[in-house]
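tool_log.txt
---
The assistant was asked to compare two proteins side by side. It first ran the structure predictor on the initial sequence, then on the second. Raw inputs and outputs are pasted verbatim so the downstream comparison step can read them without reformatting.
(1)
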Amino acid sequence: MFQVTLLNFVITPEGLQDQLLGIVVAHERPELEDKKNALIVQGADNKRQLKDIEDKILEVLSTSEGNILDDETAIKILNSSKNVANEITLKQVITVDITLRT
């Protein structure tokens, strides 16, 4: 079996260091690499949820007629969006805290 290593000479030293560190960690501690990949997926999912929340809020604000405080549906959607955003923020803080301890 042959192994090919491709180097990008346009990459910054920090980027190259990150890549090499990732290779070493994947080889020496594959469970950490799996955890890192899971965190990346979770972060992307959180960003997608926040984007969906923003879109929902903008839709509510653009379709609301009159005083938005009188629109119970809009208030419920905004409160729900606020709760989901707070949950995502809490998850991210907990994840960072746990990651820094390991």
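(2)
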Amino acid sequence: MADDLNERGMELRRKMFGAEGADKRIQEASDFVRPLEDFVTSECFGNTWNRGVLDHKTRSMITIAMLTALGGQGGQIRNHVKGAINNGVSKDEIREILRHAAIYCGVPRSVDAFKNAEAMLKELGLE
């Protein structure tokens, strides 16, 4: 079962973040960090992200909103914007999520999330 979750998790990580990014993250993980990467791959992406109730697009949108609520989490916002685009979330939908978050999470958190989202959109050639 663990191998299946790991395989499913790596498949989704590659789809969302690109094969190079997903594989590089695992390959470059130190002995100290590897248990965390294994956990993220199997439990986060292999298990939670692959439950059938919510599709990947919806989960991406929720994740961006929650990361904004947590205070930006800059690198995570950037990564999950890339994943959201690959899961079918549009640039306009990302903008609306962050605008909505300004009301419920606070303007400073939303400003930081906008900055990080825009950086990834530029990197992807979408801004």
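---
observation on (2): The CA atoms of residues 6 and 38 lie 7 Å apart. The chain has a mean pLDDT of 94.
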